[in-house]
Amino acid sequence: MQLFYCRKCGAPLRKSDRYCPRCGTKAVDPPEMTEEAAREQIGILLEYINRKQAAQRQSDPNLRRRALELVAEIGASVTMLQRKMEIGAVEAELLIDWMAQKGYIARPDQKGWRVLFTPEQARTLDLGD
Ligand SMILES: [Zn+2]
After folding, report:
1. What is the SS3 string spanning the chain?
2. Crossing angle of helices 78-85 and 61-74, rounded to 10°
3. Domain residues of the chain, as ranges?
4. Which pairs count as long-range contacts for 5-11, CB under 8 Å and 24+ apart, including other chains?
5. If you measure from the C-alpha of residue 25 to the centroid of ligand 1, how many angstroms do you get, rounded to a whole number?
6. Cα(37) to centroid of ligand 1, in Å?
7. What pLDDT score was predicted for residue 74?
8. pLDDT for the residue 2
9. Nearest CA to 56 among 101, 88, 103, 104?
10. Distance 34 CA to ligand 1 centre (A)
């Protein structure tokens, strides 16, 4: 893996190079990563992975069907789905987003979501996309 490059001519440098083998410019070590910076990078990566996994889980047909049934009975809310389904906030959010995208729920005003289907329809609505 190439770690750094000559700041003058752009030639690739090995970590052991004190001077650029092409132009002779003194090699400068890349700034060392602090523990804090490393933790931040790991945090960003973990969040990315969590979101990706949540996105996969929320596309499960059984989960979506159950969410539709609950929304038809109780109303569309992220916290309600979290509690009743024992899922994470991200998954619950993604499920609500998905319903809105499908046109199953609509947000008419500040009060919240309007549910546009009945409990009977919840059993037959399309679960794709
Ligand atoms: Zn150079």
Report:
1. CCCEECCCCCCEECCCCCECCCCCCECCCCCCCCHHHHHHHHHHHHHHHHHHHHHHHHCCHHHHHHHHHHHHHHCCCHHHHHHHHCCCHHHHHHHHHHHHHHCCEEEEECCEEEECCCHHHHCCCCCCC
2. 120
3. 60-129
4. none
5. 5
6. 28
7. 96
8. 45
9. 88
10. 27
Cα distances (angstroms) measured from residue 5 to each of 24, 37, 38: 13, 22, 22
Output b/e per residue, 56-94; b: 16+ Cβ within 10 A.
eebeeeebbebbbebbbeeebbbebbbebeebeebbbbb
CATH topology of domain 60-129: Arc Repressor Mutant, subunit A (1.10.10)
The more confidently predicted of residues 1 and 80 is 80
Q: What is the pLDDT of residues 6-37, one digit of tens each?
A: 888 888 888 788 899 999 988 876 656 678 87
